Amino acid sequence: MTVEKSQLTRRRVRVAWLFLTPMLVTIVAVAGWPLLRTFWLSLTNATLSGNSVTEFIGFANYLEIYDGEFYGVLADPLWWQSVYNTLYFTVVSVGLETVLGILVALALNMKFPGRSIVRAAVLIPWAIPTVVSAKLWGWMLHDQFGMVNDLLMTLHLISEPLAWTADPDLMMTSIIMVDVWKTTPFMALLVLAALQMLPSDCYEAAKIDGIHPVKVFFKVTLPLITPALLVAVVFRALDALRIFDLIYVLTPASEDTMSMSVYARQNLVDFQDVGYGSAASTLLFFVVALCTILYLYISRRSRGGLA
Amino acid sequence: MKLKWWQWTLFYIGIAMIVLYAVFPFYYAIVTSMESGSELFTVDYWPSRINFDNYAQVFDGQPFGRNLLNSAVVSIGVVALSLFIGLTASFALGRIKFRGRGILLLAVLGVSMFPQVAVLSGLFELIRFMGIYNSLPALAFSYMIFTLPFTVWVLTTFMTQMPIELEEAAIVDGASPSVILFKVFMPLLWPALVTTGLLAFIAAWNEFLFALTFTLTNEMRTVPVAIALISGAGQYELPWGVIMAASVIVTVPLVGLVLIFQRRIVSGLTAGAVKG
Asked: Which domain does A253 fall in, by range?
């Protein structure tokens, strides 16, 4: 019996690897290999045109001292500007999305007629392609003909039109505004799912004791949804760190809003400097990898199941 | 919770504001898409007349029909491929205990967190080496990096929930693993496949960075890139009416899918993120 069983187990393990092969091959081809090549290219002077012979140049793309001057990605003020922009964008937009997402989730957690229609309506911004939402808001925020300026002037909140997508002081605010509009639904739905899994008995106890709803939220609800919330926040933050399309379309080629992804692609494609662009890509990869490890750590602790 | 009438009123005002905030930009795009010429220079909150000139112009000025077809072909192809590969992989990960399974699941999750830019130069090189630069296979190939890990991850969570008795009965009947997967489990997994397929479709339909980098000519572009690159004859002002018409065309199928399948989409999102 035991011999038979272990034979069956062995056969099943063989089947498992057979069934995994297509996935493993695909992942290695589209992710593993290109990633290794990007690391390697970042250590060379490769260009997109490929006219000259590619040579190994060590870490010169990252940092190099030549005639007492520093060169390389790490010595470029624009790189550090884009790091700052990305981090600022991530912290502010994810923060706003979390607060708004919780508020929307609490509202959708109430029982009221028409709730499913409201939930569907809230999903619309999430489904709209990022490029399209960038264009929609680019038009609504237009400095001369945009409806946002028109509305704010009618309400006498501003006295003259603002250049939302051209004024360096306002551009990042506009980008955050559009991102918050687009991704709050995602946050709200994740929080809503967590809310609906909460046990109802602790609420009833709080109600009998006559505790104020706001206090119940901070003392009971928030601690209970914190694990799910943390996972959602890290998930969103990882997404925000690699932001590309919104910034690329809403404020094209502006150094004031450039993100790490935009910086890397500009060097790679527009300046055709594959080595230098790969170095920037690699640095971005390590920033995100660090956050991913943090995410895995959190999700394993809060779940302890599947993996 | 018992609310007084004025509390309900406030609650409904709040709900109305949420809905208005979510839906208004898309509504405004529809209004703008019906305006042309000088009508664009004044702000109107409802359409003054029904006018589809901009919609005709979208297809006139660039190969937009071709772009739509490209997007549809690439997205459907990517979804079919990821579902097939994801289905076999999730059977192994969800139903069979073997050494290295935990590590594999973590690796799959790790890949889904990849910044796309990190593989851009390596992928560009590979695509040129395979001779598929500026073609739809290049896009379908590169999109697997974000659709496949997600598909595997979500399908695995659904696969683990299948009843063990079903599988045991099939094994007793002498069914091979592929029969168990495709004849026994797959009919039960349809809801999960629809959910995962929808989310992967939306992700592929909306993708921008790879589509922008791996295509060169107007005929090979997908719609997000086509919309981003629309520029009118005028040197200084963009043809906003045409851009809004194109935006509406691209978004209507997605909004339709969301409205029809909202329950499925929500369950897929939470399975992918909260349980993940």
From this structure: 77-303
What would the pLDDT profile of B205-219 be if each residue is shown by its tens digit?
999 999 999 999 989
CATH tag, B62-273: 1.10.3720.10
Domain-wise residue ranges, chain B: 5-41, 62-273
- Look at A145 and B244 and tell me if their CB atoms are within 8 Å: no
> Pick from A13, A31, A120: which is nearest to B119 by CB?
A31
Residue where a domain terminates, one of A22, A37, A66: A66
Within 8 A of A37 by CB-CB distance, chain B residues are 121-122, 125-126
**B210, B141 contact by CB (below 8 A):** no
Let me know whether A34 and A59 are in one domain. Answer: yes
Distances A81 to A89, A154, A260, B10, B218 between C-alpha atoms, Å:
12, 36, 9, 44, 33
A72 within a domain of the structure (yes/no): no
Same domain for A156 and A297, yes or no, is yes
**Per-residue model confidence as pLDDT tens for chain B (276 residues):** 567 888 888 889 989 999 999 999 999 999 999 988 778 888 888 887 888 888 988 898 789 999 999 999 999 999 999 999 999 999 999 988 888 888 898 888 888 877 889 999 999 999 999 999 999 999 999 999 999 998 998 899 888 888 888 888 888 888 888 888 888 898 888 888 988 999 899 999 999 999 999 999 989 999 999 999 887 655 567 888 899 999 999 999 888 888 888 888 877 777 765 443
Q: Using CB atoms, which residue from A29, A189, A281 is nearest to B266?
A: A189
**ipTM reported for the complex, 2 dp:** 0.88
Residues A158 and A284 in one domain: yes
A144: nearest CA partner in chain B? B41
User: Domain ends where: A39, A66, A93?
Assistant: A66
Domains in chain A, number: 2
Closest partner residue to A121 among B23, B126, B156, by Cβ?
Answer: B23
Taking an 8 Å cut-off on Cβ atoms, the answer to whether B11 and A131 are in contact is: no
Asked if the Cβ–Cβ distance from A41 to B126 is below 8 Å, we say no
